[in-house]
Design a protein that fits this description.
mainly beta; 4-stranded antiparallel sheet
């Protein structure tokens, strides 16, 4: 090979390497010797990233919520802070406990516990606790639903509204139909009084899948969840409120997967927005299986044809964030390792219009990493958290990701 050609090829190779996705060293934020799960990322009122999770002893069925704050965009984190009022939280990576910071030092922790109700042995209850002094003290936890007809609430989400109040959605057993499924409820906080004026938004929702709420920069409240269509099809739908949650549009299916299943898929959808519109990712086994992506340029009236995110047929638990108007999607997928299977975290880095720029893996095949969550930090950085198996227990791991 001629020296000039070799030099050009070497320069191009180095340039491509520098411009690619570059995960930094992973940091364990949970306590050693504890079984940690349910990683979740949010931000405090100063924009600092906050990781929350659940820890329990290996012999226990329930645990406590912890969180840690980073003042340097994810390079380092504070010592874990316990939320004492979350005693009894059930560590369910699908029914993910969440933390939200309101203006003025108010923090809300939303979490699930077992209901032990004879009407449904799998029933759960959603609880929440509030702190009004930046997390120094916490009120006793109270149920999200006090109506005695409501004995099963699960698969919740929470988001901050433009006016500084918090909104929550959840799946609820209360419904006015004999059709299968749960009702999706919506409620908003009223200052320090907690969540008030709960109202049903949709019925016949798949009883056992994550729900997703996203508040866009223009204040629109977007909901995505797995609906039960024609009593048998479990596909993802989208709704939007343009009036602060007073009303919602009718559910519209984001993709006609036509997945007929009499069971609990668990893994739910994710969505984000940027200058080109709304972007969705989800898992299905209808018309092919795995994690898929589509977008809408007209605020949810129409959707592009779906595209696969991974060659792995069981890629699931997708999560997505907007980074400097571009998109980062992550998920977990099984991988063969020696004589067994592990789990790894994959990614797609997409342009603003959804076209894939780069794809690959963020964790090694030799480790066992799943349930990733992601958020943007700084201009071209993202923060990834996930659960990682460590012997017979698990830990919560965080890693910064440098984007091109």
């Amino acid at each position: 090979m001629k020296p000039m050609v070799a030099a050009i090829l070497l320069l191009l190779t180095l340039s491509c390497h520098r411009s690619g996705i570059q995960p930094e060293a992973a940091v364990v934020v949970s306590h050693a010797g504890k079984d940690a799960s349910c990683p979740f990322i949010t931000k405090d009122t100063d924009g600092h990233p906050v990781i929350s999770w659940v820890e329990k002893d290996s012999s226990a069925d329930t645990g406590l919520m912890y969180y840690a704050v980073s003042n340097d965009n994810g390079h380092t984190f504070s010592e874990p802070v316990v939320i004492p009022a979350t005693t009894g939280v059930f560590p369910h990576d699908e029914n993910l406990p969440k933390l939200l910071f309101k203006p003025g030092g108010n923090i809300i922790a939303l979490f699930g516990v077992e209901a032990n109700d004879p009407r449904n042995k799998y029933a759960g209850k959603v609880m929440y606790t509030q702190s009004f002094d930046h997390g120094k003290t916490w009120q006793a936890a109270v149920p999200l639903v006090t109506d005695t007809a409501g004995y099963d609430q699960r698969y919740f989400d929470m988001a901050l509204l433009p006016g500084g109040e918090a909104a929550a959605i959840w799946l609820d057993n209360r419904k006015e139909t004999n059709a299968e499924g749960s009702t999706l409820y919506f409620a908003v906080t009223n200052g320090q009084k907690g969540f008030q004026s709960a109202m049903p938004v949709a019925t016949t929702i798949c009883q056992c899948c994550r729900t997703k709420m996203y508040v866009a920069d223009n204040g629109n409240i977007h909901l995505a969840y797995r609906d039960i269509i024609n009593d048998s099809i479990r596909d993802m739908v989208h709704q939007v409120s343009r009036d602060g949650g007073k009303s919602f549009s009718a559910p519209v299916r984001i993709s006609a997967d036509n997945w007929v299943v009499n069971g609990c898929p668990h893994t739910g959808p994710t969505l984000t927005a940027n200058s080109t519109g709304l972007h969705f990712a989800w898992f299905t086994m209808g018309g092919g299986q795995g994690a898929f992506y589509c977008r809408s340029v007209d605020n949810g009236q129409t959707y592009t044809q779906r595209e696969s995110l991974s060659k792995a047929s069981m890629a699931k638990h997708p999560q997505m964030t907007t980074v400097n108007d571009q998109l980062l999607v992550v998920w977990d997928e099984p991988v063969k390792w020696k004589n067994d299977f592990n789990s790894r975290v994959g990614f797609q880095y997409k342009a603003a219009d959804g076209k894939t720029i780069q794809a690959g893996m963020l964790t090694t095949d030799s480790s066992y990493a799943n349930f990733p969550v992601i958020t943007a930090v700084e201009e071209n950085k993202a923060l990834l958290a996930y659960k990682q198996r460590n012997g017979s227990s698990s830990e919560v791991v965080v890693s910064r990701i440098a984007l091109p």
